[in-house]
Design goal:
alpha+beta, about 140 residues, 5 helices, about 45% helix, 3 strands, 3-stranded antiparallel β-sheet
Length: about 140
C-alpha cells in the first residue's frame, strides 16, 4: 500500500497521490475482498440488502450492528458490501452521516438508498446463502 503523505500546494488538496491512483488502489482492494472474503461478503450483503428492503436506507453502522466480523478479519472488507448494488443500479448514495458507533470515532459514512426493490429481491434469489447460513 502506498502511504499518503501531506504536501504543500501540489494541486491535489495537499496529498501526494492523485485521484486516479487512489481510485485504482480502491478498485484493487475491492477485487481482493471479492476473492478472499467471498462467503462473509455474501452474508453481509444479505444483511445489507434485507435492511434496505425493510427500511429503504442503510449505512455501514446498520451492517455492523447486525453482522459480527470474524476474529482475525479486518472489518475494512465491509466497504465492498455495496459495490454490486451500486453497479447493478439497485442503490445509490444519498448523502453522508457521522457513524454512531463509538469505535468509529464519528467517522463519516455513506447513506445508501434503495432505488430498485425488484432488482434487490432478484439479487437475493440469485445469490442464496448456503443452507447452514440461511435465515
Amino acid at each position: 500500500m502506498i502511504p499518503i503523505a501531506k504536501k504543500e500546494d501540489n494541486g491535489n488538496c495537499g496529498y501526494s497521490r492523485d485521484l486516479f491512483e487512489s481510485r485504482k488502489l480502491k478498485e484493487e482492494a475491492l477485487a481482493g475482498h471479492e476473492s478472499t472474503r467471498k462467503a462473509i461478503l455474501l452474508k453481509a450483503r444479505h444483511i445489507f440488502i434485507r435492511h434496505l428492503l425493510n427500511t429503504g436506507s442503510a449505512t455501514a453502522d446498520d451492517i455492523r450492528n447486525k453482522f459480527e466480523v470474524p476474529e482475525g478479519v479486518n472489518p475494512n472488507f465491509l466497504g465492498s458490501v455495496p459495490t454490486p448494488f451500486t453497479r447493478g443500479l439497485i442503490i445509490n448514495r444519498n448523502g453522508y452521516v457521522e457513524s454512531s458507533r463509538p469505535a468509529a470515532h464519528a467517522r463519516v459514512v455513506s447513506v445508501w438508498r434503495l432505488i430498485n426493490s425488484r432488482k434487490a429481491e432478484a439479487w437475493l434469489l440469485d445469490n442464496p446463502l448456503p443452507e447452514s447460513e440461511g435465515e
